[in-house]
Each structure stands twice: as C-alpha cells, then as structure tokens.
Amino acid sequence: MSGMGARVIALAVGFVALVTLPYWMPGIYYINVSSQILFSSIFALGLNVLAGYGGLVSLGHAGLFGIAAYATGYMLQHGFGHPVAILTALVSGLASMALYAVLSLRATGIGFIMITLALGEIIWGLAYRWISITGGDNGINLHGRPQPFGIAINTANSFYYTTLVVFLVAFAAVAVFVRSPLGAALMGTRDQSRRMTALGYHVWAIRFWACMLSGLLTAVSGVLFVYYTQFISPQALDLTASAEVLLMVISGGAGTLLGPIVGAALVIVVKSVVSGFLERWNMLLGAIFVAIVILMPEGLVPGTARLWRLAWRKAGGRAARESEPKAVSKAEAKP
Amino acid sequence: MTFWLLLTVNSITFGGLLFLLAAGFSLIFGLMRIPNLTHGSLFMLGAYFGATFAGGYLSMTFNFWVAVLIATVLVAAFGTVIERFLLRQLPGQQMAQVLVTLGISFIVADFCLMVWGGDPVRVDTPPSLTGFLRYGPLVFPHYRLAVIAIAVAAALGLWLLLDRTRLGAMIRAGVDDPDMARVVGIRVSQLFTIVFALGAGLAAFAGIIGAPILSVYPGLDQDMLPLALVVVILGGSGSLLGSFVGSIVIGFIYNFGQALLPELSYFVLFLPMLVVLLVRPQGLFGRFVP
User: Maximum CA pair distance of chain A?
Assistant: First the structure.
C-alpha cells in the first residue's frame, strides 16, 4: 500500500466517522465535547498557518479569539441581530489581526513570540479591566443561537453539524492554501527568508496575508465558541488560553494538516473528559507535553508516521524494500 | 502629597522585586536565547517553599532568612535539573522549548495547587522588620524599605559578578557572540547551566522576599511572567542595567496605573513596551535584536 492510498482511506474513514458521530457517540455530553474539539481545531488550524507553515510562533492568538467572541456578545447585548454580530466579530477579528501583524512582523523568532504575547496580554487586560464595555470578570452572557437558513441549532446534534460544516470548509481552505503558490511561498519564507527576498518575493506581504488567513480562522472559531458556551469572560483569552492552542498545534505536529486537529482532540479530551475522573489533569497535560518533546519532538502526527514507516519497513523485509524508495520520495515531497 | 509619596515608595519596592525576577530571565534569554516560560512558576515555587519553611514545616519554624536560603537553593537545583535534562536536548528548537517550558509550568502550577491548596498563603513579615519609619505625616513600613535595599544590593552583587569576575566576562562573551566564545575555549554549555540555576535561584528569591507583600496564591506565576517579559523587552535582553531601569519604570507604571487608571491599567502597562519595540527593537540597553 502506498502512502497516498493510506492517506486517502484514512481521510475517508475520518470523514464518515465525523458525519455519523452523533449516532455512535454514547451521549449528548460527548457530542458536545466533539463540537468543542471541532471549533478548537479551527482555532488550531488558524494558528498552524502562522506557527507551522510560516515559522511565526504566536503566543497571543487567544486575544484575537477573544475579540471576535466579545464583539459577538457586545453586539447581541446591544440589540443587533445575529448576522450583524457575526459580521462585526469577523471584521474586528481581522482588523485586530492586521494590527498584530503590522506590530509583530517587525521581528521573527523569539521576538515575534514576545510581541504577540504582549499584544495578547493587552487585550486580556482590557477585557478584564474595561468593565463598562466587557463586564470585567462577570463577562457577557448571550441569549440564543442564530438560525442559519431558518434551522434552529439549539440542540447538541444541530450545533455539532453546524460546527462540522464550518470545520470542513476551514479544513479545505487550509488544505488549498498550503498547496497554493502563496502557501509554498510562505513555507519558503519560513525556511529561507533571505533567499526568498533575493528571488524577488515580498516576504513581509506573504507573511501578512498568512496572518490574515490565520486571523479569519481564529475569529470564526471565536464566534463558534461564544455561541457554544453562550458566555464570554476574560478567562477565554488569558495567557493560558494562548498557550493551550499553541500546545495543540505543536503537540499534534506543527506544519502538518492533521496535527492541529489531533492536538486539539488531545487537549480537549484531557480537559473535559479525563478531568472528570482525574483531579490532577493539568499535571497530566503538562507531563504529556514534556513527554512529546522528549519522545516525538516533531509532534504526534509526524512522529507516529515516522514510527509507522519504520515498523512497515522492518515487517515488510525484502519485499517492501523494492517499493520503499518510491514511498519515501513521495513522503518527502509532501510537506 | 502623602498619597504620591507612598505610591512612589510602593512603586520602587515593586520595581526592586521585578528586578530580582527579571535579571535572571534577561540573562537566560540573552545567553541561551530561550524564552523561559517557567520563570513565573519558579517565582511562585520559591514563594510557596519559603512560606512553608518560614511558617512551621515539620513542626519546626525556621528563621525567615534561613527559609529564604533553603527555598532559593531548592529552586536553583530544580532549575539545574530542567536545564541539564530537558532544555539541553533542544538547542535552537524554539517550538520544543516553548512546549517543554509551558508543560513544566502546567505541572508546577498543579503541583502547588495540590500541595498548598487554592487559598492564598500569607507569609508574615520577619519580626525584626515589622516596624514603621515615621517621617512627619508619612509612614513607611520597614520591610518595604528593606526590600529596596536588598534589590539594590543584589543589583550591585550581580554587576560585580558580571563586570569584575572571570565568570562574568565569560557570560558576557557568551551573550555577545556564543559561537566566538566557544572558539576561544569558553565552555558555553557549562555557562548555560550556571546562568539557568542563577536565574532560577533569583526568581525564587524574589518570590519569597515578595511573599509578605504580595502573598502567595495560585495564578501568581501567570501574573508575574508577563511582567518579567515586559521588563526584559523594555530594558533589552542580556543587559543588567536594562533590567534595572526597566524594572523601576514598570514598577512605577504598574502602581500608578492601578491607582489612577484602573480600567486601562494593563493597557498602560504594555504600551511603553510596544513603543520601545517599534522605535528601538533591541530594547533601551539591549545588545541585540532577539
């Protein structure tokens, strides 16, 4: 079996599993956990565009996520309809991302981490202290969810399917982006930014547009989050939240399509399912991250793929060796 | 007038604490180019250890200063372990460094919650410093003045260490140009361990010294880490003078901001850092752009 075939089959199985999920999950609680995993995956996919494909590690993305969520809540609180609220959320998320980009793209590497961290903290500070707008620690409560095309999405199942549709669109968008010339150029700026400049690429502009895609996905995720929880408070955008989404990306495998989704599933499952019967789940999460760095520094998805190939090669022996060079070259050609 | 003077003293005290915290962060960042996101956790761990040893551990109550010493040494040893066994394996891999330092900070935070619970732990001011200095209508607690003196003494000591000793010269060489330092025969990897242990010890020292003022509570780590970060970005990484000036500036902004503009206090806190980043990316006294 070639790597490509396995990939297609795995994606098809995953798709069918996601579509039929409400029918085989043991209860409403787990369907809701799945919705959380899906919108967190959108968030992680958005950050992965920057951190994984662009090499720009942001520790302030929860701020953008929060701005979209707060904008939705604020507009609804002031009597606007759902379409206006969602549009405002997306626009303000994108505008904040543009501001982030202008400020933080002056640096790369650790400098970029620090500036985004500071920007995220500023937004957190505003959410926490600017009580007249944000309600401070009490946050903003929402009442009701929108009805896209007249369909109520108040039940766990209907909300899950809405999230799934958005998730699939987001996933396809990132997949297309990564294969597009712009995506290739972005990876070029990550690996060889000087050479890209010498080749005539506008490195700053490429990074800026990557930021915008990342910001859009983050804002979409923020809107889904606030409709899911019906509540937004500063806790959703503090440093821990920014760290968590970055950990989703890195633990799953930065710069891979499936990595952020696996990472999101890992974090959300530990947070909401394991925490039900293990009081020290935070410690477990930390230990998992340290273990990943030691055992699979490239992340769970590429790490597992590496082990799989190794096992395949050993088990296959001489018969597999003939087809091996083909598989390896294919795997390497695909970033 | 009294209000302003008290606010000023509080600002300098807080600045002194920040300096103890940020000096180590800055050295680690400057020398090893590692964003040490455990630094807030080391501060909190030091504070909890200090509180435990000063407040009756195993039915013996240590003298406050002995407790400070024990806590500092314990956390410095912990820092050595982190550097030797984890960060050592990940040179130049920023994402792995971020992942592992955040992972450790999750573990430490949960460990503290498990051992010391969710309620704030109060640490009593050492008995010899409980008094007040009266000057006309003004009242200054001895302890706050002592913290300022300790911070200044620590700054002087660090300056002597970095500027006047052979070890300091090697560290400075490592900050300026690690590759060249290696070429001339300095064992930079050994310096990494020393600097990381020193930074961890300083953070813990700041934690326990600050405990009678700030008290110790879950989330203290997440409160302190961004402040250390702001100081280092403002002052410039790897620069002792930068950390000192940055700490005092941030100490003032933090206290005055909270008193005068409570709604926008965090905004005011991070604003000067942004301005510095835009105008002078290496920080006020920095030697290089991170």
Answer: 71
